[in-house]
Each structure stands twice: as structure tokens, then as C-alpha cells.
Amino acid sequence: MTVESTAARKPRRSAGTKSTAGKRTTAKNAPGTDPELVQLLTPEGERLKNAEYDKYVAGITPDELRGLYRDMVLTRRFDAEATSLQRQGELGLWASLLGQEAAQIGSGRATREDDYVFPTYREHGVAWCRGVDPTNLLGMFRGVNNGGWDPGSNNFHLYTIVIGSQTLHATGYAMGVAKDGADSAVIAYFGDGASSQGDVAESFTFSAVYNAPVVFFCQNNQWAISEPTEKQTRVPLYQRAQGYGFPGVRVDGNDVLACLAVTRWALERARSGEGPTLVEAYTYRMGAHTTSDDPTKYRADEEREAWEAKDPILRLRRYLEAANHADEGFFAELEAESEALGRRVREAVRAMPDPDRFAIFENAYADGHALVDEERAQFAAYQASFADEGGH
Ligand SMILES: Cc1ncc(C[n+]2csc(CCOP(=O)(O)OP(=O)(O)O)c2C)c(N)n1
Ligand SMILES: [Mg+2]
């Protein structure tokens, strides 16, 4: 076990920008700043022994370790491409997962094919693990569809923007799984900000009393847009579980091996009828909340720099190299694969057909509605006002 440094969490003046001092209200030794953390790989790439969780990754092969590395690198490459596409005007918005690759790949690779995943809007790495083609994630962000994939094909639900609501969906689904007598598990992703939502509290209560086979996977990336975690809780988030009557654990969210081990443990609990678990993956959102956000307005550069030293990809690379599990050829091939993925994503986005402009009015009510008819007519009139420009 190691202890997180509190140094990164003190507001400091950020060089060259407006002072961010005073924008965070972190009390000295505030509860939750240095709780115990499950860590199997240090930022330097050293493997730590852990009596409780080692057995969940004991049999992992060099090939599987390289696989986790590949997953993280390709996910980061995809994410960077999507951010660029938004900057080029090809996407309306993008929510980057930069920095959260280990939390998502570790937990995503712990799931079994028959498990069911309820994501937020940032789980691009989990989608990757579930086999959802990354290009399918982009339609909604381009505004050409409302989701872009069939949730039933990969047991990966559509992205959910209404903060925390998917934890209720996951709980209900898990209660159904239990009633069916299946040994599948359900995992719900949510953020530190979402932990303040009533929906999450209700999910915890229901899943506990019904012993639902669900894992609540909270990526505590330290921020909910511009609100720091200190504004969400006075205790470490994982400790909330205790009050509901199920276990909670904090894992180093930048350590893919620890995330894999802890999530395997939690999913196994769910499968064997032991009920819900809360996993708090302690990580950091390296980028902006979305492409519409400017984090320099509310957080200090030093904070990001401190987390850069704990980069999830770098630490696995260090481990792979020190253990002689990967050579230059592997890294070079992966670089080429990343570039090819970036190209494929770019081309796929640019080729996405525009939707029928009137389709938006079709699926709100099964039998139509007077208000929808009125809005459709207004929209048609608006469109017609461009008639001299070819109706566009
Ligand atoms: C019910 C609801 N309230 C507010 C919002 C606006 N909103 C979008 S993202 C966000 C912050 C979420 O933070 P967190 O749960 O920590 O997730 P993160 O974005 O950091 O991954 C908020 C308040 C929303 N989408 N839904
Ligand atoms: Mg957050």
C-alpha cells in the first residue's frame, strides 16, 4: 500500500495565467487526501506485492501485459484523434479520457462477455474492451445519430449524459440478472461529481438490500467540470459504501494491473452472490472536461504536472522494459498501428452521412403529438427560408 501525495492537491499560482490560488478550498489534511490505495505498479514501473489482490493477476502472461499496453496506447490515440476532429469542426463536442486509460482498460478487461456495462459519456477505453468499434462512438458527438451502436451486441449500453442515472439502470438490470439465476455481473461507471446525485444514493440502497450483482466503478478524476472533489465529499468516496452495507475499495486508477485485479475481485463477488461493491479508481482528468471547457480557468498547471509523473501508460512501459517483456519492435509496430487507427477514424468521421433533418421529430411519440407536429411545421418553414440557397 502506498499513500498519495497531498502536494498536488494544494492550489498554487499557475505560471503565466491568472492566479488559481483560492479557487480550490482544500483544507489542510482534509479527509480523503491520503487514504490507503491498492497499487501493484508504482509510477516508476516497479511491481509491488499485495497479499489481497496479487492472486487476481497472478497468472498474467507477458503477452497479456503487452495487450493491456496496446489497449491503452490505441485508446489514447483514438481519443487524441477525436479531440483533433472536434477542433477541425468535424465533431460538435468531445469528452476526452486522457489520463484515465488504466482505470478503463483494467476494469474493462476484467469483464466477461456476458457481463453488462453501463457507461457514462467518457468510457471510450471500456467501449474498446467490449469490442465496440471506436468509430461508432463518434456519431453522437458529430450529431448524426443518438448513439451509434447496438447495446445488445456487446453488452455495452449507450453513453449516458444524465449524470448518475445509469447507476439506477445498472442496479435494475443486475436485479433482473439475479432473478434470472444467471451468474453474470453488471458494472456501472460514474464520476466523482456523480457521486453527489440522488440516483447514485438510491442505487446504493437498492443494490445493497436486494444484494444485486453490480460493481459501482467510480473514476474519481478529481474534478466535476470545475468543481473539485472536496466539494462533493468530506470522506474518501470509497468509504461511502460502508454506510450502505457493502465493501468499498480505493485503487490506483493509473495502475492498469491494480484496476484489473480489484475489478476482477469485485466482479467475482457479484457473480458468487455476495452483492455490490464500490470501486473508487483514484485518477486524474489530464485534459479539459470536454472540448467546450478551459481548465486553466480553475486549476493550477502544477497539479496536472504532478499527475503527468504518474502517467498510466508510461508506468506499464517501464515495467515491460524492465522485465524484458517488450522490445523496440513491439513499440514501433504499435506506433504504426496507432497511426493507422487515427487515419481510419478520421476517414470514417468525414464519411458519416448527415441524418434526415426531420428524423428528430419521428421517435418522441409512437402515435405523434400536436406539439411535435407544430415544431415540425416551424422547422420546415425555417428550412424553406433558405430555399434560394438550395434549401441548405
Ligand atoms: C443530472 C445532470 N446534472 C448536470 C449535468 C451537467 N454535467 C455534465 S458533466 C458534469 C460533471 C460530471 O462530473 P463527474 O461525475 O466527476 O464525471 P467526469 O466528467 O469528471 O468524468 C455535469 C455537472 C448533467 N449532464 N446531468
Ligand atoms: Mg470527475
Stretches where pLDDT is under 50 for at least 5 consecutive residues are: 1-33
Q: List all distinct small molecules, including ions and cofactors, that are bound in this structure.
A: thiamine diphosphate, magnesium ion
Task: Count every helix, treating DSSP H or I runs of 4 or more residues as helices.
Answer: 13
User: What structural class do you assign from the helix and strand content?
Assistant: alpha/beta
Describe the structure.
This protein is of the alpha/beta class. The chain folds into two domains: 16-350, Rossmann fold; 356-392. Helix content is 40%, strand content 9%. The chain is built from 13 helices and nine strands. The chain has helices at 62-87, 101-110, 124-130, 138-142, 151-154, 165-180, 198-209, 240-244, 256-271, 301-308, 312-322, 328-350, 370-384, and strands at residues 2-3, 36-37, 116-118, 186-191, 214-220, 223-224, 227-228, 248-252, 277-282. Strands 3-4-5-9-8 form a five-stranded parallel sheet, sandwiched between helices. It has a two-stranded antiparallel sheet with strand order 1-2. It has a two-stranded antiparallel sheet with strand order 6-7. A hairpin with a 2-residue loop joins β6 (223-224) and β7. α2 packs parallel to α9 (256-271) and α6 (165-180) runs parallel beside α7. The structure holds thiamine diphosphate and magnesium ion. Thiamine diphosphate binds at residues 122, 161-163, 191-194, 221, 223-225, 285, 289. The site of magnesium ion (MG) has 6 residues, from β6.
